[in-house]
Design goal:
23 strands, five-stranded antiparallel beta sheet, Beta-galactosidase, Chain A, domain 5, lyase, Hepar_II_III_C, 14% helix, 2 domains, periplasm, 5 helices, single chain, mainly beta, lyase activity, eight-stranded antiparallel beta sheet, signal
């Protein structure tokens, strides 16, 4: 688009409108450190590299968006500098000039729920950030870059991954690792009978998709008090529906997660509930009680995980056969990280089974 503007070649207004909406969406979903959600495949692809390796690519994108489209009052502040923004801004025609773009209403407040994507962001005090996934399994019928991560969570505290999405790691040549990083077990969600929610037909193919739907998305910013709420369900497991409810309670600085297996009456079903900790998190697990600690800019911070007592909990880290307990900070890279896995079953005598987890931040 920059080249077209510099050459005086018309660019359809629809292209500029899509880029504007993409930029507003990025501003809406990043955490306080300008990191976006980690979800599905990511391979660190770049179309044009003009900055050094230390440049914050997401801050750079927002800075360019501000120069081209103008920032909204609710946008996060961008404090870094880059080369790309002044370069492209010198070539691009500012949005809305010369009558080539339609009038569009931009969000007056920071959106927290994107219904088409099924992506919801909950925000709380002390920069608590929680991404909830209740969207489609992936793009079109093959969902090539989707992961079996329906109803998964991603939680950060002041930009630090506390409950982390493990990432992608690889595409080809290592089928066991490709299978793990896109599996249900590799995400912060519930697995039944040792199976993925969706059925894989190859490294870039899913032959059956779990269908998710969001039931509630109350995304009010509760930094100053109150409770934000999200609830969704999916039908990926035959005979049963997995429903999850998440409450972010400001006064208690805690996240309450309730997993229900509906349709549990009948033959009992094996359950595995996984919580993947970020690579910076140290954990002390005793029974169903986990104390989490990490350091942020020289300050020790902590949280506790009160895990469902009806499950048996173990910590896994850096295991390879089979893979479990890994975090991929970028394509082709992986490092050990602790995964807490609770195992048990639905007893088959009730129409539903419930598993409650509380993550409480201590400062």
């Amino acid at each position: 688009m920059a080249e077209a503007d510099a050459a005086g070649v018309p660019v359809p207004s629809s292209v500029r409108l899509v880029l504007l909406r993409m930029t507003d969406a990025l501003a809406a979903v990043v955490d306080n450190r300008l990191r976006p959600p980690r979800q599905g495949d990511a391979d660190d692809g770049h179309g044009l590299v003009v900055d050094g390796g230390g440049t914050d690519r997401w801050g750079s994108l927002l800075a360019t968006g501000e120069a081209v489209f103008g920032r909204l009052d609710w946008w996060p502040a961008v404090t870094g500098t880059d080369v790309r923004t002044p370069l492209l801004a010198a070539l691009l025609r500012p949005y809305g000039k010369k009558g080539s773009t339609p009038t569009v209403t931009r969000p007056a407040r920071r959106p927290g729920h994107f219904s088409d994507a099924g992506l919801t962001i909950l925000r709380g005090p002390e920069e608590i950030w929680c991404r909830c996934d209740g969207g489609p399994h992936g793009f079109l019928s093959i969902a090539a870059h989707g992961h079996a991560d329906a109803l998964s969570l991603e939680v950060r505290h002041d930009g630090v991954d506390v409950l982390a999405d493990p990432g992608t790691y690889c595409y080809h040549g290592q089928p066991a690792w490709r299978g793990y990083f896109r599996s249900t077990l590799a995400h912060n969600t519930l697995e039944l009978d040792g199976s993925d929610q969706s059925v894989s037909g190859g490294p870039f193919l899913w032959t059956r998709h779990a269908r998710s739907r969001v039931l509630v998305a109350d995304t009010a910013d509760v930094s100053a008090g109150g409770t934000a709420l999200w609830s969704a369900e999916h039908d990926g497991y035959q005979r049963s529906v997995h429903r999850r409810r998440v409450e972010l309670v400001a006064a208690a600085k805690e996240l309450r997660v309730v997993d229900e297996v509906l349709g549990a009456l009948g033959p009992r079903r094996d359950v595995r509930l996984a919580f993947h900790l970020g690579p910076a998190i140290a954990v002390d697990l005793v029974g169903n009680w986990a104390v989490l600690t990490w350091t942020r800019e020289g300050e020790v911070r902590s949280a506790v995980l009160d895990l469902p007592g009806q499950l048996n909990w173990r910590a896994h880290r850096g295991e390879s056969d089979p893979p479990l307990g890994w975090y991929s900070p970028g394509f082709g890279r992986k490092e050990p990280a602790t995964t807490l896995v609770g195992t048990g079953f639905t007893d088959g005598t009730a129409s539903s089974a419930e598993f409650a987890t509380v993550l409480r931040f201590c400062g």
